Amino acid sequence: MMKTNLDTAIFAGGCFWCMVEPFDSLPGIEKVVSGYTGGHVKNPTYAQVCSGTTGHTEAVEITFDPQIFPYKKLVETYWQVADPTDATGQFQDRGDQYRPVIYYNSEEQKRIAEESKKELSESGRFDKPIVTKIEKASTFYPAEEYHQDFYKKDPSRYQLEESGGRAEYQKNWKN
């Protein structure tokens, strides 16, 4: 039986390997897919996106049940896993393909993301401005299979990537 009440959300916040696990374990999340979006090259490869010439970001597409885990809570989770003050990359990942972007697929998602960004900006939590872009979603291209569920496939390498600053950032959010 197919669930018809599912929605999707797309977030870019650095290496997609590190963006999957924080969302994957939340209630109401059906799947999290690593991929590329926001650029001008059709069906890009990892090598092309890494070159920084495609306009794409590494991103995750989250399929979720909004009755169980609303979009607003996904955005709140996103702020905890991506540094909203760094427009030139995330943690050890540098370059345009790692820029933080919330891609919306409806006017409702856009409104929620903009309100949440405004609240975060006004919270005084950061000394620097919130630079995360909020952009209309375009075609999402799933990454190659070896990138999917990377944290499960190669946990030691995932931990190495995670230790590059994101884990410390997340720890500070919880305090």
Automatic annotation (TrEMBL):
Report which reactions are catalysed by this protein: L-methionyl-[protein] + [thioredoxin]-disulfide + H2O = L-methionyl-(S)-S-oxide-[protein] + [thioredoxin]-dithiol; [thioredoxin]-disulfide + L-methionine + H2O = L-methionine (S)-S-oxide + [thioredoxin]-dithiol
Where in this chain does the record put each Peptide methionine sulphoxide reductase MsrA domain?
A: 8-159
Active site (record annotation): 15
Matches recorded under InterPro entries: Met_Sox_Rdtase_MsrA_dom (IPR002569), Met_Sox_Rdtase_MsrA_sf (IPR036509)
The answer to whether keyword Cell membrane applies is no
Location of region: Disordered: 155-175
Keyword terms of this UniProt record: Oxidoreductase
* The keyword Nucleus appears for this protein: no
UniProt EC number: 1.8.4.11
Q: Which Gene3D superfamilies match?
A: Peptide methionine sulphoxide reductase MsrA
Q: Which GO terms describe its molecular function?
A: L-methionine:thioredoxin-disulfide S-oxidoreductase activity; peptide-methionine (S)-S-oxide reductase activity
Q: Which family does it belong to?
A: Belongs to the MsrA Met sulfoxide reductase family.
Return the NCBIfam families for the record.
msrA
**Purpose of the protein:** Has an important function as a repair enzyme for proteins that have been inactivated by oxidation. Catalyzes the reversible oxidation-reduction of methionine sulfoxide in proteins to methionine.
Name of the protein this chain belongs to: Peptide methionine sulfoxide reductase MsrA
